[in-house]
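Posting for a labmate who doesn't have an account.
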Amino acid sequence: YLGLIAFTVCIFHLFSASRNREMHNHLSIKSFNLSKRFTTKTNETFSGFKEVHTNNTFLWELASASHWLDKIFRVRTKLFLNIELFQFINRVTNQFIPVICFAAGCILLVTDELSLGALVAIILAAKDLPTNWKDFFRHDSETQEARTAYEKLVGRFSSQENFQNSHKETTVNNLTGNLE
């Protein structure tokens, strides 16, 4: 029974960690893209500062920048809360398995269905379980980070190709007739 309980908790931990990792990667990419667009918008504003001054659109540009910063702040706040939630679930799960094994093992020990040596072996095995999970999650984290970096890189080049395709040179027909 103790192994079944530990296995169930480990499956829950694995599912929640993978789900949390997907959300983390999605928010990371979203934050990166928003920052990139904000940088582009800021560069356009600074390069056209004379037009902003001439047309007196300073307050409009300031409101636009505030809007972009608010978007970036909200995404990064979600990202931070996601990281904190994952760490909380990780810590609770790492402490939950030994506590359950100890509590259920003590009950089985009192009812004489489990020996003291078996209870000690189960608790020691449960204590070693988090180190194996840490190795697994480190590997999974590195894999997901590499995938996220690849997606960012592909997105960067695809946006440049779209920019180049939208600004292709057009052919102009030669003018005919007399110039006056």
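Reply:
Got it, the structure tokens are right above this. The helical segments are 2-47, 49-55, 58-110, 116-166.
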